[in-house]
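Example (one chain per record):
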Amino acid sequence: MKKHSKLKGLQKRKAISGYLFIFPFIIGFLAFMVKPFFQSLYMSFCEVDVSAGGFKNNYVGIANYMRAFTVDTEFTRLLVEEISRMCINSIAIMVFSFFVALILNQRFKGRALVRAIFFLPVILSSGVILGVESNNALLSSIQEAIQETATGPSITDAIENILITAGVGVRAFETVFEIVDGIYDVAIASGIQIIIFLSGLQTISSNMYEAAEIEGCTAWESLWKITFPMISSLFLVNWIYTIIDFCMRSDNEVMEKISDEMIVQINYGFSSAMSWIYFAIVIVIIGISSLIISKGVYYYE
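Predicted structure:
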Protein backbone atom coordinates (compact mmCIF):
# COMPACT_ATOMS: atom_id res chain seq x y z
CA MET A 1 0.00 0.00 0.00
CA LYS A 2 2.83 2.35 0.92
CA LYS A 3 4.68 1.51 -2.30
CA HIS A 4 1.53 2.20 -4.33
CA SER A 5 1.09 5.63 -2.69
CA LYS A 6 4.73 6.51 -3.41
CA LEU A 7 4.28 5.54 -7.07
CA LYS A 8 1.10 7.60 -7.29
CA GLY A 9 2.89 10.58 -5.73
CA LEU A 10 5.74 10.25 -8.25
CA GLN A 11 3.29 10.17 -11.16
CA LYS A 12 1.55 13.26 -9.78
CA ARG A 13 4.85 15.15 -9.54
CA LYS A 14 5.72 14.15 -13.10
CA ALA A 15 2.32 15.36 -14.29
CA ILE A 16 2.79 18.70 -12.52
CA SER A 17 6.25 19.07 -14.08
CA GLY A 18 4.77 18.37 -17.51
CA TYR A 19 2.04 20.97 -17.11
CA LEU A 20 4.57 23.54 -15.90
CA PHE A 21 6.72 22.78 -18.94
CA ILE A 22 3.87 23.50 -21.41
CA PHE A 23 2.38 26.36 -19.36
CA PRO A 24 4.22 29.14 -21.32
CA PHE A 25 2.91 27.68 -24.59
CA ILE A 26 -0.65 27.56 -23.22
CA ILE A 27 -0.43 31.20 -22.14
CA GLY A 28 1.00 32.24 -25.52
CA PHE A 29 -1.70 30.30 -27.39
CA LEU A 30 -4.53 31.84 -25.38
CA ALA A 31 -3.07 35.34 -25.66
CA PHE A 32 -2.01 35.42 -29.31
CA MET A 33 -3.58 32.51 -31.23
CA VAL A 34 -7.19 32.00 -30.12
CA LYS A 35 -8.56 35.26 -31.55
CA PRO A 36 -6.85 34.96 -35.00
CA PHE A 37 -7.92 31.30 -35.05
CA PHE A 38 -11.62 32.15 -34.89
CA GLN A 39 -11.20 35.24 -37.08
CA SER A 40 -9.72 33.05 -39.81
CA LEU A 41 -12.63 30.62 -39.48
CA TYR A 42 -15.16 33.43 -39.84
CA MET A 43 -13.26 34.95 -42.78
CA SER A 44 -13.48 31.63 -44.63
CA PHE A 45 -17.26 32.17 -44.86
CA CYS A 46 -16.91 35.80 -45.97
CA GLU A 47 -15.80 37.95 -48.87
CA VAL A 48 -13.26 40.29 -47.28
CA ASP A 49 -13.00 43.83 -48.64
CA VAL A 50 -9.74 45.56 -47.78
CA SER A 51 -9.73 49.37 -47.68
CA ALA A 52 -7.94 52.19 -45.95
CA GLY A 53 -10.52 52.01 -43.18
CA GLY A 54 -9.77 48.37 -42.44
CA PHE A 55 -11.48 45.06 -43.21
CA LYS A 56 -15.13 44.52 -44.08
CA ASN A 57 -16.49 40.98 -43.96
CA ASN A 58 -19.43 40.19 -46.28
CA TYR A 59 -20.93 36.81 -45.38
CA VAL A 60 -21.17 34.50 -48.42
CA GLY A 61 -21.68 31.11 -46.76
CA ILE A 62 -19.74 28.18 -48.19
CA ALA A 63 -19.02 29.94 -51.50
CA ASN A 64 -15.26 30.04 -50.81
CA TYR A 65 -15.20 26.31 -50.05
CA MET A 66 -17.17 25.52 -53.22
CA ARG A 67 -14.75 27.67 -55.21
CA ALA A 68 -11.77 25.77 -53.78
CA PHE A 69 -13.15 22.40 -54.86
CA THR A 70 -15.07 23.21 -58.06
CA VAL A 71 -13.61 26.38 -59.58
CA ASP A 72 -9.92 26.45 -58.62
CA THR A 73 -8.72 23.12 -60.03
CA GLU A 74 -5.09 23.94 -59.18
CA PHE A 75 -5.82 23.77 -55.45
CA THR A 76 -7.30 20.26 -55.58
CA ARG A 77 -4.37 19.06 -57.72
CA LEU A 78 -1.79 20.52 -55.35
CA LEU A 79 -3.70 19.10 -52.40
CA VAL A 80 -3.58 15.55 -53.77
CA GLU A 81 0.10 15.87 -54.75
CA GLU A 82 1.21 17.27 -51.39
CA ILE A 83 -0.79 14.75 -49.34
CA SER A 84 0.75 11.92 -51.38
CA ARG A 85 4.24 13.39 -50.98
CA MET A 86 3.63 13.85 -47.26
CA CYS A 87 2.72 10.19 -46.76
CA ILE A 88 5.74 8.91 -48.72
CA ASN A 89 8.23 11.33 -47.13
CA SER A 90 6.88 10.77 -43.62
CA ILE A 91 7.37 7.00 -43.90
CA ALA A 92 10.88 7.52 -45.32
CA ILE A 93 11.76 9.92 -42.48
CA MET A 94 10.49 7.50 -39.83
CA VAL A 95 12.50 4.58 -41.25
CA PHE A 96 15.65 6.67 -41.75
CA SER A 97 15.55 8.29 -38.30
CA PHE A 98 14.88 4.99 -36.52
CA PHE A 99 17.79 3.13 -38.10
CA VAL A 100 20.15 6.08 -37.65
CA ALA A 101 19.14 6.18 -33.96
CA LEU A 102 19.91 2.44 -33.71
CA ILE A 103 23.37 3.06 -35.15
CA LEU A 104 24.05 6.04 -32.89
CA ASN A 105 23.01 4.02 -29.85
CA GLN A 106 25.87 1.57 -30.41
CA ARG A 107 29.19 1.92 -28.58
CA PHE A 108 32.04 3.11 -30.82
CA LYS A 109 34.83 5.66 -30.77
CA GLY A 110 33.79 9.20 -31.60
CA ARG A 111 30.13 8.49 -30.85
CA ALA A 112 29.53 11.98 -29.41
CA LEU A 113 30.95 13.63 -32.55
CA VAL A 114 28.84 11.46 -34.86
CA ARG A 115 25.73 12.25 -32.83
CA ALA A 116 26.47 15.96 -33.12
CA ILE A 117 26.87 15.61 -36.89
CA PHE A 118 23.51 13.86 -37.21
CA PHE A 119 21.89 16.58 -35.11
CA LEU A 120 23.12 19.22 -37.57
CA PRO A 121 19.94 18.83 -39.70
CA VAL A 122 18.02 20.44 -36.83
CA ILE A 123 20.32 23.47 -37.04
CA LEU A 124 20.34 23.48 -40.84
CA SER A 125 16.53 23.34 -40.93
CA SER A 126 16.27 26.64 -39.06
CA GLY A 127 14.80 29.56 -40.95
CA VAL A 128 18.05 31.55 -41.20
CA ILE A 129 20.14 28.71 -42.63
CA LEU A 130 17.39 27.68 -45.04
CA GLY A 131 17.16 31.27 -46.25
CA VAL A 132 20.91 31.43 -46.80
CA GLU A 133 20.87 28.07 -48.56
CA SER A 134 17.97 28.88 -50.90
CA ASN A 135 18.96 32.47 -51.70
CA ASN A 136 22.75 32.17 -51.84
CA ALA A 137 23.99 33.03 -55.33
CA LEU A 138 27.36 31.36 -54.70
CA LEU A 139 25.74 28.04 -53.77
CA SER A 140 23.51 28.27 -56.83
CA SER A 141 26.46 28.90 -59.16
CA ILE A 142 28.39 25.98 -57.60
CA GLN A 143 25.39 23.69 -58.11
CA GLU A 144 25.09 24.76 -61.75
CA ALA A 145 28.82 24.20 -62.30
CA ILE A 146 28.61 20.69 -60.84
CA GLN A 147 25.65 19.86 -63.06
CA GLU A 148 27.46 21.17 -66.16
CA THR A 149 30.67 19.25 -65.45
CA ALA A 150 28.85 16.01 -64.60
CA THR A 151 29.10 13.81 -67.68
CA GLY A 152 26.96 10.74 -68.18
CA PRO A 153 23.96 9.55 -66.23
CA SER A 154 24.12 8.83 -62.51
CA ILE A 155 23.91 5.30 -61.12
CA THR A 156 20.35 5.82 -59.89
CA ASP A 157 19.28 7.19 -63.28
CA ALA A 158 20.83 4.22 -65.08
CA ILE A 159 19.17 1.66 -62.80
CA GLU A 160 15.87 3.51 -63.03
CA ASN A 161 16.00 3.51 -66.85
CA ILE A 162 16.80 -0.23 -66.94
CA LEU A 163 13.92 -1.14 -64.61
CA ILE A 164 11.44 1.13 -66.36
CA THR A 165 12.46 -0.25 -69.76
CA ALA A 166 11.94 -3.77 -68.41
CA GLY A 167 8.49 -2.75 -67.20
CA VAL A 168 8.98 -4.25 -63.74
CA GLY A 169 6.95 -2.42 -61.06
CA VAL A 170 7.36 0.94 -62.79
CA ARG A 171 5.39 3.08 -60.34
CA ALA A 172 6.86 1.40 -57.26
CA PHE A 173 10.43 1.88 -58.51
CA GLU A 174 9.73 5.49 -59.45
CA THR A 175 8.57 6.16 -55.87
CA VAL A 176 11.68 4.47 -54.44
CA PHE A 177 14.01 6.48 -56.67
CA GLU A 178 12.20 9.71 -55.77
CA ILE A 179 12.97 8.97 -52.12
CA VAL A 180 16.61 8.14 -52.95
CA ASP A 181 17.00 11.36 -54.94
CA GLY A 182 15.45 13.29 -52.04
CA ILE A 183 17.62 11.71 -49.33
CA TYR A 184 19.02 15.16 -48.52
CA ASP A 185 15.52 16.42 -47.68
CA VAL A 186 14.84 13.28 -45.63
CA ALA A 187 18.05 13.76 -43.63
CA ILE A 188 17.33 17.46 -43.08
CA ALA A 189 13.87 16.64 -41.69
CA SER A 190 15.01 13.75 -39.44
CA GLY A 191 17.00 15.54 -36.74
CA ILE A 192 14.34 15.77 -34.04
CA GLN A 193 13.04 12.27 -34.76
CA ILE A 194 16.55 10.83 -34.38
CA ILE A 195 16.96 12.52 -30.99
CA ILE A 196 13.56 11.26 -29.77
CA PHE A 197 14.25 7.69 -30.89
CA LEU A 198 17.75 7.83 -29.40
CA SER A 199 16.44 9.03 -26.04
CA GLY A 200 13.94 6.16 -26.04
CA LEU A 201 16.59 3.58 -26.90
CA GLN A 202 18.75 4.75 -24.01
CA THR A 203 15.93 4.09 -21.52
CA ILE A 204 15.92 0.35 -22.38
CA SER A 205 17.90 -1.57 -19.78
CA SER A 206 20.84 -3.56 -21.10
CA ASN A 207 19.81 -6.37 -18.74
CA MET A 208 16.87 -7.14 -21.02
CA TYR A 209 19.18 -7.71 -23.99
CA GLU A 210 21.59 -9.77 -21.87
CA ALA A 211 18.77 -11.99 -20.62
CA ALA A 212 17.46 -12.42 -24.17
CA GLU A 213 20.94 -13.34 -25.41
CA ILE A 214 21.30 -15.95 -22.66
CA GLU A 215 17.99 -17.45 -23.77
CA GLY A 216 19.38 -17.75 -27.31
CA CYS A 217 17.63 -14.74 -28.81
CA THR A 218 19.31 -13.31 -31.93
CA ALA A 219 19.89 -9.59 -32.53
CA TRP A 220 17.09 -9.55 -35.09
CA GLU A 221 14.66 -11.16 -32.62
CA SER A 222 15.74 -8.71 -29.91
CA LEU A 223 14.95 -5.85 -32.26
CA TRP A 224 11.36 -7.04 -32.78
CA LYS A 225 10.68 -8.48 -29.32
CA ILE A 226 12.39 -5.87 -27.12
CA THR A 227 13.38 -2.70 -28.96
CA PHE A 228 10.20 -2.16 -30.97
CA PRO A 229 7.73 -2.72 -28.12
CA MET A 230 9.71 -0.62 -25.64
CA ILE A 231 9.84 2.46 -27.87
CA SER A 232 6.60 1.91 -29.76
CA SER A 233 5.00 4.97 -28.15
CA LEU A 234 7.72 7.14 -29.69
CA PHE A 235 6.69 6.02 -33.18
CA LEU A 236 3.32 7.68 -32.55
CA VAL A 237 4.96 10.88 -31.27
CA ASN A 238 7.39 11.08 -34.18
CA TRP A 239 4.70 10.29 -36.76
CA ILE A 240 2.50 13.18 -35.58
CA TYR A 241 5.49 15.53 -35.41
CA THR A 242 6.67 14.52 -38.90
CA ILE A 243 3.28 15.16 -40.51
CA ILE A 244 2.89 18.56 -38.85
CA ASP A 245 6.47 19.52 -39.71
CA PHE A 246 5.93 18.58 -43.36
CA CYS A 247 2.74 20.62 -43.60
CA MET A 248 4.58 23.71 -42.34
CA ARG A 249 7.56 23.41 -44.69
CA SER A 250 8.47 26.39 -46.86
CA ASP A 251 8.50 24.29 -50.05
CA ASN A 252 4.94 23.04 -49.49
CA GLU A 253 3.07 24.02 -52.66
CA VAL A 254 -0.31 24.13 -50.92
CA MET A 255 1.06 26.63 -48.40
CA GLU A 256 2.59 28.62 -51.26
CA LYS A 257 -0.79 28.67 -53.01
CA ILE A 258 -2.52 29.90 -49.85
CA SER A 259 0.14 32.56 -49.25
CA ASP A 260 -0.13 33.76 -52.85
CA GLU A 261 -3.91 34.16 -52.55
CA MET A 262 -3.55 36.04 -49.26
CA ILE A 263 -0.55 38.28 -49.97
CA VAL A 264 -0.49 38.76 -53.75
CA GLN A 265 -4.17 38.48 -54.62
CA ILE A 266 -5.28 40.00 -51.27
CA ASN A 267 -8.10 37.48 -51.08
CA TYR A 268 -8.36 36.75 -47.36
CA GLY A 269 -11.68 34.93 -47.50
CA PHE A 270 -10.64 32.41 -50.15
CA SER A 271 -7.19 31.85 -48.63
CA SER A 272 -8.78 31.26 -45.22
CA ALA A 273 -11.14 28.67 -46.73
CA MET A 274 -8.22 26.83 -48.36
CA SER A 275 -6.29 26.95 -45.08
CA TRP A 276 -9.18 25.38 -43.18
CA ILE A 277 -9.65 22.70 -45.83
CA TYR A 278 -5.97 21.78 -45.63
CA PHE A 279 -6.06 21.91 -41.83
CA ALA A 280 -9.13 19.64 -41.65
CA ILE A 281 -7.62 17.07 -44.04
CA VAL A 282 -4.35 16.96 -42.09
CA ILE A 283 -6.21 16.57 -38.78
CA VAL A 284 -8.22 13.67 -40.23
CA ILE A 285 -5.04 11.99 -41.52
CA ILE A 286 -3.35 12.43 -38.14
CA GLY A 287 -6.41 11.09 -36.32
CA ILE A 288 -6.84 7.98 -38.48
CA SER A 289 -3.12 7.13 -38.64
CA SER A 290 -2.68 7.75 -34.89
CA LEU A 291 -5.60 5.43 -34.15
CA ILE A 292 -4.02 2.71 -36.28
CA ILE A 293 -0.53 3.15 -34.80
CA SER A 294 -1.86 3.33 -31.22
CA LYS A 295 -3.28 -0.19 -31.61
CA GLY A 296 0.27 -1.51 -31.66
CA VAL A 297 1.71 0.76 -28.99
CA TYR A 298 2.94 -1.03 -25.86
CA TYR A 299 2.74 1.01 -22.66
CA TYR A 300 4.70 -0.18 -19.64
CA GLU A 301 5.23 1.10 -16.12
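Caption: Residues 284 and 290 are 10 Å apart (CA to CA).
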